[in-house]
């Protein structure tokens, strides 16, 4: 005869109340950007059950720098950014950095969305010209598992820059520093030679249409007064304008789709350009050549304009507002292009 199933005792009213309090505390702590379920659970177990508790030294000291910034601006940075707010920030940036910079808004804004989760600012400068070659092997470039819709510009490895690299970076010295001194940038989440991520205070104008005084803006940032939102700054090589606008407009599914198309045509597409592998191997490789690492280099095919890149891939021009996976799936394409010695032809 099998044993009877174990019957769990019914929870008492007190236990139910304690469980409800714990769930409420977990939900509350996760309102802080950067605090996930695991961190929230650890904090609650330690006795931290509210936003006010998180500011106590014994709990605050356990937070990462990003979580501390999330706590500082709790209830602010998760808020969506309207198109008007994004345009105001864009105007402020253009007026407070060198006019030699070409500045655009990407992401959901360029795709026509009424609101965005953050602001993706794309910057080009005529002296920033170095185009990095793909840091990926020939075989890996054409593996579907390696193709994503995200951009390496999002890497936070740049936060480990040396002091010399930081001082030499045009993004830091010519963009981030002036915008910090001007009272726009409020906090930095990560910094790299090509990408900055952080929090900005939305600039305001008086009744005469003039920006607030710089000194006043700085004081308001220090006092955490105003409206704060997330922003990314992306510095891209001048020659890579087209590739960058494609990558930083998105969406992720659209980017993945056109990168897969590039792979199918024997090319590699990233935020710096459309590339083709030029092999140094003999025309008749050995039997096991596919298993070996191919010798060769990446050649930049197209990068200047979105139109040229899409045309090289055999894809008709797609308006930024229609760049999503659902649209791409139903859109007819031209005959696929092949490239022979730098010239494209249809097949």
Automatic annotation (TrEMBL):
<dbReference type="Pfam" id="PF10391">
    <property type="entry name" value="DNA_pol_lambd_f"/>
</dbReference>
<dbReference type="InterPro" id="IPR019843">
    <property type="entry name" value="DNA_pol-X_BS"/>
</dbReference>
<dbReference type="InterPro" id="IPR002054">
    <property type="entry name" value="DNA-dir_DNA_pol_X"/>
</dbReference>
<dbReference type="GO" id="GO:0005634">
    <property type="term" value="C:nucleus"/>
</dbReference>
<dbReference type="InterPro" id="IPR037160">
    <property type="entry name" value="DNA_Pol_thumb_sf"/>
</dbReference>
<dbReference type="GO" id="GO:0003677">
    <property type="term" value="F:DNA binding"/>
</dbReference>
<dbReference type="GO" id="GO:0006284">
    <property type="term" value="P:base-excision repair"/>
</dbReference>
<keyword id="KW-0548">Nucleotidyltransferase</keyword>
<feature type="domain" description="DNA-directed DNA polymerase X">
    <location>
        <begin position="3"/>
        <end position="324"/>
    </location>
</feature>
<dbReference type="InterPro" id="IPR028207">
    <property type="entry name" value="DNA_pol_B_palm_palm"/>
</dbReference>
<dbReference type="InterPro" id="IPR043519">
    <property type="entry name" value="NT_sf"/>
</dbReference>
<comment type="similarity">
    <text>Belongs to the DNA polymerase type-X family.</text>
</comment>
<dbReference type="GO" id="GO:0003887">
    <property type="term" value="F:DNA-directed DNA polymerase activity"/>
</dbReference>
<feature type="region of interest" description="Disordered">
    <location>
        <begin position="135"/>
        <end position="167"/>
    </location>
</feature>
<dbReference type="InterPro" id="IPR018944">
    <property type="entry name" value="DNA_pol_lambd_fingers_domain"/>
</dbReference>
<feature type="compositionally biased region" description="Polar residues">
    <location>
        <begin position="135"/>
        <end position="160"/>
    </location>
</feature>
<dbReference type="InterPro" id="IPR022312">
    <property type="entry name" value="DNA_pol_X"/>
</dbReference>
<protein>
    <recommendedName>
        <fullName>DNA-directed DNA polymerase X domain-containing protein</fullName>
    </recommendedName>
</protein>
<dbReference type="GO" id="GO:0006303">
    <property type="term" value="P:double-strand break repair via nonhomologous end joining"/>
</dbReference>
<dbReference type="InterPro" id="IPR029398">
    <property type="entry name" value="PolB_thumb"/>
</dbReference>
<keyword id="KW-0808">Transferase</keyword>
<dbReference type="Pfam" id="PF14792">
    <property type="entry name" value="DNA_pol_B_palm"/>
</dbReference>
<dbReference type="Pfam" id="PF14791">
    <property type="entry name" value="DNA_pol_B_thumb"/>
</dbReference>
């Amino acid at each position: 005869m099998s044993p009877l199933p174990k019957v769990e005792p019914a929870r008492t009213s007190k236990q139910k109340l304690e469980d409800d309090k714990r769930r409420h505390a977990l939900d509350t702590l996760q309102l802080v950007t950067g605090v996930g379920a695991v961190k929230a659970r650890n904090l609650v177990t330690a006795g931290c059950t509210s936003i006010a508790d998180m500011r106590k030294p014994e709990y605050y000291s356990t937070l990462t720098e990003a979580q501390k910034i999330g706590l500082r601006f709790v209830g602010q940075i998760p808020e969506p950014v309207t198109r008007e707010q994004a345009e105001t920030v864009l105007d402020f940036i253009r007026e407070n950095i060198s006019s030699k910079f070409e500045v655009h808004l990407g992401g959901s804004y360029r795709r026509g969305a009424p609101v965005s989760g953050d602001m993706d600012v794309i910057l080009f400068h005529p002296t920033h010209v170095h185009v990095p070659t793909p840091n990926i092997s020939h075989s890996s470039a054409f593996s579907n598992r390696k193709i994503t819709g995200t951009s390496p510009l999002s890497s936070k490895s740049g936060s480990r820059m040396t002091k010399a690299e930081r001082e030499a970076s045009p993004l830091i010295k010519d963009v981030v520093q002036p915008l910090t001194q001007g009272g726009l940038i409020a906090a930095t989440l990560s910094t790299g030679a090509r990408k900055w991520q952080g929090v900005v205070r939305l600039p305001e104008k008086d009744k005469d249409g003039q920006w607030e005084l710089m000194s006043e803006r700085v004081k308001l940032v220090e006092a955490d007064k105003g409206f704060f939102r997330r922003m990314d700054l992306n510095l891209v090589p001048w020659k890579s304008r087209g590739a960058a606008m494609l990558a930083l407009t998105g969406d992720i599914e659209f980017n993945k789709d056109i990168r897969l198309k590039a792979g199918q045509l024997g090319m590699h597409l990233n935020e710096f350009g459309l590339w083709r592998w030029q092999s140094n191997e003999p025309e008749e490789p050995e039997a096991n050549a596919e298993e070996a690492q191919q010798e060769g280099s990446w050649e930049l095919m197209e990068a200047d304009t979105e139109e040229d890149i899409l045309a090289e891939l055999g894809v008709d021009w797609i308006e930024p507002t229609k760049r999503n996976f659902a649209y791409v799936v139903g859109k007819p394409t031209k005959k696929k292009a092949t490239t022979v010695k730098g010239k494209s032809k249809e097949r």
